[in-house]
Write a structure and sequence with these properties.
With 77 residues, the protein is mostly helical. It is built from two helices and no strands.
Length: 77
């Protein structure tokens, strides 16, 4: 049961990054979504969502690998 909860928690930043990619792609093709008033703002929201999602997921992977001692010397504390 704990593994399923951990999987769901790991999927949240991944879904956030996917939504960010979708927002940026829609901006490139000129598709404006209803809650966002302009295309540049939509692109910035997508870029921020993508960056935050990747940052959180990458930090999780780095933290897990540090605990298991599977990182290079430059990433160790």
């Amino acid at each position: 049961m704990h593994r399923y909860i951990a999987l769901l928690l790991a999927l949240i930043p991944v879904v956030m990054a996917i939504v960010g990619i979708k927002l940026m792609r829609d901006t490139v093709f000129g598709i404006l979504l209803s809650p966002i008033p302009s295309l540049p703002l939509q692109f910035l929201a997508g870029a921020a969502s993508f960056a935050i999602g990747i940052y959180i997921f990458g930090g999780f992977i780095l933290h897990r690998d540090r605990k298991r001692n599977k990182v290079q010397a430059r990433f160790k504390r």
